Every structure is written in C-alpha cells, then in structure tokens.
Fold:
Amino acid sequence: SSPQPAVPSPQPAWDDATGAARVRALFATTFGGEPDGVWSAPGRVNIVGEHTDYNGGLCLPIALPHRTYVAVAARPGTRRLRLVSAQEPGPAREVDLDAVGPVGTTGEVRGWAAYVAGVLWALEAEGLAAGLPGLDVAVDSCVPAGAGLSSSAALECAVAVAVDDLAGLGLAGPAGAPDDGGRARLAAACVRAENEVAGAPTGGMDQAAALRALAGHALLLDCRDGQVEHVPLNLTAAGLELLVIDTRAEHRLVDGQYARRRQVCEAAATVLGVPDLRAVAEDIGSGATTLDEVLPRLADDEQRRRVRHVVTEIERVRTLVGLLGDAEGLAGPALRRAGAVLDASHESLRDDYEVSSPELDLAVAAAREAGALGARMTGGGFGGSAIALVEAGATGEVMSAVAAAFSAAGLADPAFLRATASGPAG
Ligand code: ADP
Structure:
C-alpha cells in the first residue's frame, strides 16, 4: 500500500524572545555590536470586507501572531541607512536618506529597501518628524512574504514604531496606553511609504491592522474616516479556529487589475453622484434606496457587478460584527451564519468582483467539503491566501483535504497558519 501522506501542520509563529534573538544575531554579524532595541509588527488577515477600503467602506482584519522583527541602532550625525534582511540574500543595502523620493523620480529606491527608507521619508513628508538620523536595521520575519498576509506592512510598521521610539516622536505611545490617534498618523505615513516610495497601491487596511489591532479582538476599520472599533473575538471559547491557507500561488496581473477595480468603482460613484460607494451602502442600509434601484443607473455590466460586490461586502461586515457580538450565539445558532457570511463573500469576490484564482477557489471548495463552516479568499486576490472557519477538532482534516486537493491538481503544497487575533506593533 502507498504510504499515508503526512498530516500538514500549521507554520508556527515565533515568540518574541525567538524573534528578538534572531534579529539581534543578524544585527551583530552584519553591523557589529548591539542595536538600541528590537521592535516588531504583525502580519494581518482580513476576516471580511475585501476591496472595500478604497471605497470608504468597512473591513474587519485581525493581527496575526506572525511578526516581523527589526533590530535598530540610530547613527546620529549621519543620514545613511544600512539595511539587512534574513529574507533577502546579499550584502547590506545602503540608502542615503537625503536622496530618497517617490517612484519615478531620481530618488526612487529599488527593491525591499523602499519599504524601510519610505517610512522615514514619509514621516518627514507628513511633518511628523524632521532631520531623522541614519539607522542600522536588521530584519527577520516569520510572516510569509507575498502571501497576501501583508509582510510589507509588517516591515513598514515595525520600522515606524522603532523610529517613533528612537526619535521620541511619541506617536505609538507606551505599550497598553490608549491610542490618542498617534498610531493612526503612523499608519498614514506607512501607507504613503508603500504607495509613493515602494509604488504599491494599497488602501490602508494593512497598516491599520498592524498598528492598531488589539490582541483578542478584530479591528472594525471605517475606511472613510479611519475610525476603529475593537470587536472582541474569542473563537477558542466557541470551539472554533480560523485557519489561513497560503496557496503559494503567485499574484498574477495584480497591479493592473487592482488599479482597474479602483477606477471602475470611482467611475461608478461618479455616475451615481456620490463621493464613494460607501455612500451607496449607507443609503441602502437606511432604506433610502435598494440595490435593485441603484444597479440599473450604472453604465454597464462591469460597474453593476463591482458595485454589487462592494455594497453587499460592506453589509457582510456589519452582519458578521453583529454575529460576533453575540458570544453565546456564536457558539450555537449564529455559528452557521458566520460561516455563510464567509462563503457569500467568496462567491461575490469570485463572480462579481472577479479577483479570485483557481487555487483560491480550490482551497475554499476543499476546505468546505472537509467540514469548514465557511471559507473565502482573503486579501487582494489573484493568488495569496484563503481563510476557513473550522471547528477546532476538524483543523487537521481540513488541512489534509486541502493539501490532497492541491496535490491531485498538480499544484505546489499549500502552507497553513493558525490565525489567532494578536497584538499590534510595538
Ligand atoms: P505581502 O502580501 O506579503 O505584503 P507584497 O508583495 O505586498 O506582499 O510585499 C512583499 C514585499 O515586501 C517583499 O517582496 C519585500 O520587498 C518586502 N518585504 C516583506 N517582508 C520582508 C522582510 N522580512 N525582509 C525584507 N523585505 C521584506
């Protein structure tokens, strides 16, 4: 008989001691000596509310227990960055802070260094800091890169809290202090770093999650005004687990497709005479209009399908938040409905928004067939990761089923992570 395939196991997150030891060792071998300190920030996974952020909508991410660690020393009197990452082979990168600028200018920074240099540039451009010193920075991470789990935001936000601390900006606040909006300003700087210096379009959810999520809570982010609510999320108490399935499939065409989706949403809002599609969702929510009245006013079928996704997805965020608020219900009757919300989100992203991929569809279908209560693609799409809401005892079965489906389809092995709502950058 053929040997039984091994049951896949989730990729563990490092504890802080491990992350700090690794990054200190890299710092010592690269730059010599001790850093001024170690800071870290989490990857994120979005539970529901996809492609809503740039429409002024709602989303509901959690911070992952998987984090990016930076060991940093200030180099007072210089404006030079020296950067090394365990995830990027090669010698340390050097960047002159005075020469950094947006993509397409002479100050363009190539490769991963843009995510670090961009944060310092953006803090100065936003007027949150002036004349920052050069830095030595060593990076190590257990956030899978390019999996749609925001390793880039984790890197930016770890650097942001390090600079905040070292330069005494006082924006992140001490651990546990109530957020007075300083973290929102840091997040805005990180978004500018990613948009303008790294040249990657992003709507702001990732940096908000990495800087503003709380352990044990999902972050209800209102992307219109940046307001957040912390929604208690205790899946363990309900006997549930949120499983991340990293399809390991490359993001294809994602840049052009993402820009195209944004354009169509903006054009649809213009046709409807509203500032953004959130306004449409609000009007429908208040009973002022209905989706059936709105859709015929749009220019074409593409606009109709994109708008239907955004409007129904915002509604799904509200529905899921309502279900999570009912802790007893979540353990009982509301449970199936929470799964159904994820399923409906996936169908909408696949059919109306057209950002799924064969790998994501396969992961979702296999997880559901193996007993997941609900599953959906998460993140921008065209590859990356899916999530599945699973009864705690069934996680092994779901992982095995997804792995078997990928193997049967001739695809590379997927990877799995357990997503427990974890703490923010610090
Ligand atoms: P993700 O969904 O993981 O954010 P992106 O493609 O947006 O995917 O960002 C991944 C990029 O971020 C990498 O190609 C690299 O440039 C940068 N990056 C992320 N993590 C690290 C790290 N630990 N070290 C160096 N660069 C990193």
